[in-house]
């Protein structure tokens, strides 16, 4: 049913709901509350400790005129509760001024109490004038337009009366696993009587969503267990000898990963393995050892990289590690003559190892005896791209790698068809990177210190969240590049971002490695794989705009040499949530811990890239469910497929919703 046909919704309101991505009653009931107000927990403002959250019934007396300071806009309101006066303050929410009128309100927010001056920071609010119907747990929805909370609650209630959602889980399994009805879960999530009701409803809705998602992945990826075609003749002694080509001793984690690959390629089944490890854990050395197993056995191997900067770096490494084998390079920026020569040599079998980018996936790239494929930084490639790579030979052994640690729950969903190998340790000689959060008042001190480091022969990265200045609040790379060049004329700056031509990017990166550039201003194009041992300083602007895993990846670009390295997180945000996230990064260097925290704080939808169309796991990001919901959904899918229950119904519904998964990328 279209939302405009629902009682109480006119054309204007329908347009406002459309801004929230809601145009039907089905979409409305899937628009979940982001929090709840417990009407039994109203408190006296004087009883609340500093930094605690509080629900306060009070009187709004006066709203100050909007204050503008630089790019920040501040709204302040004077509040009264009995004899106590205090303020509410909102940062960068100028529209709040239009919503506040004198009267009785409920405010919910974090209390700040400095020297007996009490304020609520960025609180949500709702008028109470003549409206004391609010009881129990009251849902609060994430709203961006002029729609009031009470209207959303009323509309959701009416939508639930006309919508009767049906579960995709086969009836025998719903009974076996004691799943409540989907319709009841929707009612309870929007109008729970207790916290337990709300939590049970969230768990049930999450199970439903993950059931269709995991089913879609299972249908797209299919059964990857296939018998081995390519027989490897390499011996364990030869593998051990090859490992000595590296200027370091393999860690226990690396040795275990090599053993898993060797056991795989000498077994009756072909390999389909995910190799994941934290920044600097030595995944590349393990992958190259796997390549050696193939070429030593007389086969060809391919090493696929997501960018030309990374591909060129890997090509240089391959030629150094494999001087006794023929290594080729194929990328989009290669000339037509170079591409033609490489393709002909590959087809003849005159190239043993091919290193390249997406250009390798083109249909006219043919191998004579390909058996081993390494897909570096797997999260940058779609499922369909990985499949097209495997079609370059017969029953190929596939090793996909990810330096972005993936929580176990998500690897279960996205890599259910893969054997997962994790390198848990790092080389002992790695010096931990010191991480610090730098407020604006300390910027000058930081620049002075960085100048000294550069004059001592060190190098630095300056990373921004965007390329150009679009009058937004985030710092742009081009803007910062110009500013730093003018303010620090004694330092040689370079600029690197995704819109540059590949030859420009490669030239800039090569100059940085040769120390012809002291400091590189870049976007997240340098997030993965780039290895410059003399780079010891990482400065990240607007750090609050990045996820924890992405910040960890950026931090991993330094600390790769023998010198002490530093990561500076710059932020002008006054959000306590943002500062809390940055403090988590500061407190740990374990990428897997950070990945789990990212999942907890940002929701699983944010681990997915933007190539897929439509909302993807986005609608359940506000639900408070445990990881058991994901494991239960996986169990339900596996059993449904094994028993052949409702297969066509599941196929139709899952693929209708998640057909675009064939192009999905992890973020």
Fold topology:
Elements: H1 11-18, H2 25-29, E1 35-38, E2 53-63, E3 67-69, E4 72-81, E5 84-91, H3 96-99, E6 103-114, E7 117-127, E8 137-140, H4 149-162, H5 171-176, H6 182-190, H7 195-221, H8 236-243, H9 252-265, E9 272-277, H10 283-296, E10 300-304, H11 308-321, E11 327-330, H12 336-348, E12 353-356, E13 370-375, H13 383-390, E14 397-402, H14 408-414, E15 419-423, E16 434-438, H15 443-455, E17 459-463, H16 477-487, E18 493-496, H17 502-513, E19 519-522, E20 535-540, H18 548-555, E21 566-570, H19 576-587, H20 591-602, H21 628-643, H22 647-658
Parallel strand pairs: 5-7, 9-14, 9-15, 10-12, 10-13, 11-12, 13-14, 16-21, 17-19, 17-20, 18-19, 20-21
Antiparallel strand pairs: 1-8, 2-4, 2-6, 3-4, 4-5, 6-7
Approximately what portion of the residues adopt beta-strand conformation?
Answer: 15-25%
Task: Please give the order of strands in the largest beta sheet.
Answer: 11-12-10-13-14-9-15
Uncertain parts: 605-615
* Continuous helix count: 22
Structural class: alpha/beta
Task: Describe the 3D structure.
With 667 residues, this protein is α/β, with parallel strands linked by helices. It has 22 helices and 21 strands. It has a seven-stranded parallel β-sheet with strand order 11-12-10-13-14-9-15, sandwiched between helices. Strands 16-21-20-17-19-18 form a six-stranded parallel β-sheet, sandwiched between helices. A five-stranded mixed beta barrel has the order 2-4-5-7-6. A hairpin with a 2-residue loop joins strand 4 and strand 5 (84-91). Helix 9 packs parallel to helix 10. Residues 605-615 have low confidence and may be disordered.
